[in-house]
Amino acid sequence: MLADLQGKGLLIHHWDTDGICSIRLLLEHLSDKNVINKTPELGNYFLTEKELKDYSKYDFVIVADMSLPEDNILKLVKKAKVLIFDHHLGREIKKIFHHNPVIKGKNPNEYPSASWIINRYLDNPVNLFALLGIVGDHEQKIKDNQLIYTTINNFCNKNNLTFDDMLKIVYLLDSNYKIGDKKAVEKAPHHLLTYTSANEILENNQWNKNLTKLNDEITKQLNQVSDEINGTILKKINTPYNIISTITRKVAWESGKNTLVINTGFFGDMDQVYVRSNKNAEPMIKRGKDLGFKCGGKKEVLGAIVPKDKTDSFVEEIMEFLTKK
Predict the structure, then answer these.
(1) Cβ atoms of residues 9 and 61 within 8 Å
(2) Under a CB-based contact definition with an 8 Å cutoff, are residues 303 and 289 in contact?
(3) Are 278 and 319 in contact (CB under 8 A)?
(4) Are the beta carbons of 17 and 135 closer than 8 angstroms?
(5) What's the pLDDT score for residue 177?
(6) Which of 77, 93, 97 is nearest to 3 (CA)?
(7) Cβ count within 10 A of residue 278
(8) What is the largest CA-CA distance in the chain?
């Protein structure tokens, strides 16, 4: 499929470690093709009209680690051959090559990241970049997935790495989007192509500076008081950094409770809403989409961008869903 692609190509990817590593794997495989990579405006799980217009000049488009709205994909497919590699919940788009084992009923534990799915599709051996996407999406929780964690542990042992080294690399790669630097996100896969060892990533000076700044902000936000309502944690933050997923993950995993976080400081006219749930979040993802919000996620995660005047009512619905027995 990939070998047959002709002309100018565009790789669209999520801004986190999984998206970056997915593109690094694809860039290596497509080294004989004329391709560039772009991430959507940071925080947007959709393409703007301007992006759709700009991206109409490509002959093929590959989307990695993003469940873009179907109407975005159908607009792209009018001008280009479109392929998707993903592991998020959603609906299969039949008109294109849509490689997502999870939405086809496969066990999500066997397909824990887009990087893993792409690496298997390319028939590559297990490697650092395939595994970093997994660690990025699951962090310590991947230790509960013995099938995959055994593979990660074996790789680390063979390559003189620790799991904490893998986590540190994830935090360094993610620092680019969390700091709000879109260009740095798009350059990151190309940096990874030039690195021959994990230590080179760990020693990247700019990414380490980013991380110091972010850790200070995360600590500050975590120290702000949260509310707990019927066993569900509700936390409001106001920060220009894209750290809502990190904050939600840390609160949820440390407490073991359903957690809902709202960030009012990233967008001017919109709020970020993020949920980590012990319940299946799919009904609320569907509800968010039905309300017209940009909303996505997976079984245990919901992320949405909501107009500020709609935030309170949507949060109320989510809280009712999470606290209902």
Answers:
(1) yes
(2) no
(3) no
(4) yes
(5) 94
(6) 97
(7) 14
(8) 56
Is pLDDT at 320 greater than 90 in this prediction? yes
Token output for 269: 């006219």
- Which of 28-32, 89-93, 266-270 has maximum average pLDDT? 28-32
Which H/E stretch holds residue 23?
helix 17-29
Integer Cα distance of 210 and 208 in angstroms:
5
Token reading at 270: 């919109």
Please state whether 71 falls in left (phi above 0), alpha (psi between -120 and 50) or beta. Answer: alpha
- In order of 39, 77, 103, 202, the CA distances from 74 in angstroms are 18, 5, 18, 40
Which of 267, 275, 324 is closest to 296 using CA atoms? Answer: 275
CA separation for the pair 160, 156 (Å, rounded): 6
Q: Does the pLDDT at position 166 exceed 80?
A: yes
Checking phi first, is residue 310 left (phi over 0); if not, alpha (psi -120 to 50) or beta? Answer: alpha
pLDDT above 90 as % of the chain: 90
Residue with tokens 């600590």: 219
Q: Is the pTM of this model over 0.85?
A: no
Measured CA angle at 34 (ends 99, 84), to 5 deg: 10
Using CA atoms, how far apart are residues 36 and 217, in angstroms rounded to an integer?
33
**Joined tokens for residue 141:** 């929780």
- Domains of the chain and any CATH numbers: 2-202 (3.90.1640.30), 224-323 (3.10.310.40)
- Which tens digit of pLDDT belongs to each residue from 286-300? 999 999 998 888 888
Q: Which residues of 233-269 are buried (b: 16+ CB within 10 A; e: fewer)?
A: bbbbbebebbbbbbbbbbbbeeeebbbbbbbeebbee
Among 298, 305, 307, 300, which Cα is nearest to 66's? 298
Mean pLDDT taken over the chain? 95
